[in-house]
Specification:
Blueprint: H1 13-16, E1 25-27, H2 30-39, E2 42-48, H3 53-63, H4 66-75, E3 76-82, H5 87-101, E4 108-112, E5 118-122, H6 136-149, H7 151-169, H8 181-194, H9 212-223, H10 228-247, E6 261-262, E7 270-271, E8 274-275, H11 276-291, H12 297-318, E9 328-329, E10 332-334, E11 342-344
């Protein structure tokens, strides 16, 4: 199908997915940014990646809509970015959305001043108001109205927000030594407090593996760091979580490896996307558990089998024939090989 916007020749498969949409998408470039500055137009920036399920959903609901595209084209310079191609841009604007909302994810959508300073942002927007979420079209129209009537106030506020964010991000955060006893105990308490004592894991639905938390506990156990009672409680939470993830739907019992997250608290129903970096982190976690003999002989054998099947999946499905690895496997697949319609998890 012939491209109808500027993304048809993009190197990114994600950008090319949007080449037939009625939105006048452009790539991130100095020429595009200069156009926004010269025309004094708000930039609408949408960041995602090719295997992102909710990126597909919003693309279909919003960006395929001629009526919504007309609003976007009338008021904004519209830019699409592939986060796997430009992680620097993604990291900058994700930090802003995380700071103002406390959560992030993809698609990442922001409205920026012509100078690229964020006015407002969020993740997925439905086309119209739904379930407590503001509709995308309404947000577009309200941003356009405010920019038309109060551009100076909006620019000043955006500049202040970005300045504060830059100041916070410039503070040294890396700690190259293992935390002291008080720091370790505080972290162990956080792990214990976040543990789902019924179903395992940390936090509630949607439930992500968050392998850095149980790995921290295993490191503390290996080094015998932290209060012994806290360490034991955190270790119990970790064992519970390892079993729950391994036994539940997050783990692909047929194909090997782990899905992105579970949509429910019980780990039963996976979001079927699979990420290369999740496989890497979870392989390290289960290898650590096996290496320190966290359970009995039978339990440890299961940890090792889980990792072996994970590596077999990566080698079989994520290895690129020309070398290297694919970054992810899409959650959406064809319902029928003879039909173009796609649905999350159809091939599972």
């Amino acid at each position: 199908m012939k491209a109808i916007n500027a993304l048809g020749e993009a190197s990114s498969p994600y950008l090319r997915q949007h080449a037939q949409q009625p939105v006048h998408w452009q790539e991130w470039s100095e020429a595009t940014l200069a156009q926004a500055r010269e025309q004094r137009r708000v930039i609408f920036l949408s960041i995602g990646y090719s295997t992102c399920h909710w990126c597909h959903v919003m693309a279909h609901e919003c960006f395929d809509s001629p009526a919504i595209a007309a609003v976007m084209n009338q008021h904004f310079v519209n830019i699409k970015v592939d986060r796997e191609e430009r992680p620097d841009i993604d990291a900058t604007y994700m930090a802003y959305v995380m700071a103002i909302s406390g959560q992030g994810g993809w698609p990442l959508n922001l409205w920026l001043t012509p100078e690229g300073e964020p006015l407002i942002g969020g993740t997925y927007f439905p086309p119209e108001d739904r379930s407590g979420r503001a509709g995308f079209r309404r947000v577009c129209e309200e941003v356009a109205h405010l920019w038309r009537t109060e551009p100076t106030r909006l620019s000043q506020a955006a500049h202040r927000h970005l300045k504060q964010l830059r100041e916070e991000s410039s503070q040294p955060r890396a700690q190259h030594e293992f935390p002291g006893a008080d720091g370790i105990d505080a972290l162990l308490r956080q792990v214990i407090a976040q543990h789902d004592t019924r179903y395992g894991g940390f936090g509630h639905a949607p439930k992500f593996p968050r392998p850095c938390l149980p790995r921290f506990v295993l490191i503390c156990e290996t080094l015998q760091r932290g209060n012994a009672e806290l360490r034991q409680q955190a270790l119990s939470a970790t064992i519970h979580t390892l079993r729950a993830m391994m036994d539940g739907g997050l783990h692909d019992h047929l194909g090997g490896g782990f899905h992105r997250y579970a949509v429910d608290s019980r780990w039963h129903i996976p979001h079927f996307e699979k990420m290369l970096y999740d496989q890497a982190q979870l392989a390290e976690l289960y290898l650590d558990a096996w290496n320190i003999q966290l359970g009995d002989a039978s339990e440890n054998a299961r940890y090792l089998r889980t990792v072996e099947r994970l590596f077999a999946y990566v080698a079989s499905e994520l290895r690129h024939p020309d070398g290297g690895f694919y970054a992810a496997e899409d959650a959406d697949s064809q319902i029928d090989h003879n039909l173009p319609q796609r649905r999350e998890g159809a091939y599972w």
